[in-house]
Amino acid sequence: MAALTAAAVAILGLPVTQASGSAAAATQGTAETPSHPRVEQVCSSPRKGEFGCLAMRRTDVKGIKGVQPFTSTPNGWGPADLQNAYNLPANGGTGQTIAIVAAYDGQTAEADLAVYRQQYGLPPCTADNGCFRKIDQRGGTDYPEPDAGWAGEISLDLDMLSAAAPHAHILLVEADSSRFVDMLAAVDQAVAQGAKFVSNSYGSGYDSSPGSGEDPVELDWDGHYNRPGVAMVAASGDSGYGVTYPAASPYVTAVGGTALTRDAGTSRGWSETVWHSSAGGTGSGCSLYEPKPAFQTDTGCDKRTVADVSAVADPATGVSVYQTYGGSGWSVFGGTSASAPIIAGTYASAGTPVEGSYPNSYPYANPSALNDVTQGFNGSCTPSYLCTAGAGYDGPTGLGTPNGLAAFRSGPHGEVVGAVTDSSGKALAGVTVMAGDYRATTDAQGHYSLTVPPGTYDMAAYAYGYEVRKAHGVVVGDGGKVTTEVPLVA
């Protein structure tokens, strides 16, 4: 009768009394760790030219609908568990908007989100109160056709953002389909709407063979993710060792996956290992095409290495999600589609990224502010750190999992700004300007801005039809701004 009453109240939209503080936390944490959980991929495998979602759902957990009494809270880690495991604030995300990019329409997304947030005592996030918005890839309300699989992905994304950043606003951008062209248009729309945090829980199909999930044309696609001042987050894949796109892009934070369990024998109270099981495993590896970003210093991969950071993704130690369209209500989900929005929410809780900076570099400036994951593997490879956890950086878990917000904020930095012109003083657009390994492209007025760590840099400007212009010994201090004008000669 208690469960029936709570569910009926939820349907009517009436408030349900929630336990608070430690009481709420004590009722969560019901994730079980069976030796062989039954798991299904939520979305179909992507075909050529398509992205696939990276969500997995337990089929051995019976679904139940509506807000549940605290004596029988849903299975899976809830918000209080995740906040405790990753040392995240309960009021995170205030004043921020996080965008989710997904394919097709989640018909019941807002209603399902309301049940999740009501269940766990989170503030309402609705279209009526301005917290939740759903748009199509053109910014309007001509929503695509629904898809039961992607609806599960959307529910997972919404619920994990709510857990990691309960006070953030959420923008759901629905692409017309999972084709590359539509998904990339949705990414552009998310940024055009002003979102400073974009969660991308999808990727190309891949296996362990080099380049299987990549294509040389992705270097052109990178422009959609190359958004200084925006935290672009992407899931690293669910098929074990190997590289998927867009996680391979040097402009995103590639998020790996772990198995998260309570552990009273540690000061943290939790332990994590690399997610790898019969159901799947986190992606990792060395890109075949993407250049290595300046902040990555591992020596076994000359190109971009995946991943950067990680969070829980193992369905056996999965998260609680509520989905009715294509689902049976409460379920337990996993996949790196769970870890990616957790990291996007962590960025949002940490504050607005510094203008002109690349937030995927932030964790590398403060790796001690992460939980280093040192156990587990997701395949076989050479060198071993690309698929096996160890002290410090490794492929499957990157630098580790969140331990508070410090690793997701910009460290010391300064700016190099200026304009590029030709010999007559005419502004030149589209010129590549570099300070060391950091690069920017001039806008229509010829202006550029680079955010870099303090140091001394050699600069260069490159444009087709012009001689390369160089400047040596440009000194940038913490909090400083250096103006360097660059005239180019044809």
Tell me about this structure.
With 490 residues, the protein is of the alpha/beta class. The protein has two domains: 2-408, Peptidase S8/S53 domain (Rossmann fold, 3-Layer(aba) Sandwich), CATH 3.40.50; 414-488, Carboxypeptidase-like, regulatory domain (Immunoglobulin-like, Sandwich), CATH 2.60.40. Helix content is 19%, strand content 27%. The protein is built from nine helices and 28 strands. It has helices at 2-12, 21-27, 79-85, 109-119, 148-164, 180-192, 218-225, 336-350, 362-365, and strands at 39-41, 52-53, 56-58, 97-103, 132-136, 169-175, 197-200, 202-203, 231-235, 253-262, 270-274, 276-277, 280-281, 285-291, 303-306, 309-312, 319-323, 329-334, 370-371, 401-402, 414-422, 432-435, 438-441, 447-452, 455-462, 469-476, 481-483, 486-488. Strands 4, 5, 6, 7, 9, 10, 11 and 16 form an eight-stranded mixed beta sheet that branches. Strands 1-3-18-17 form a four-stranded antiparallel beta sheet. The relative contact order is 0.13.
Describe this protein with a few key phrases:
490 residues; alpha/beta; Rossmann fold; Immunoglobulin-like; 2 domains; 8-stranded mixed beta sheet; 4-stranded antiparallel beta sheet; 19% helix; globular; disordered N terminus
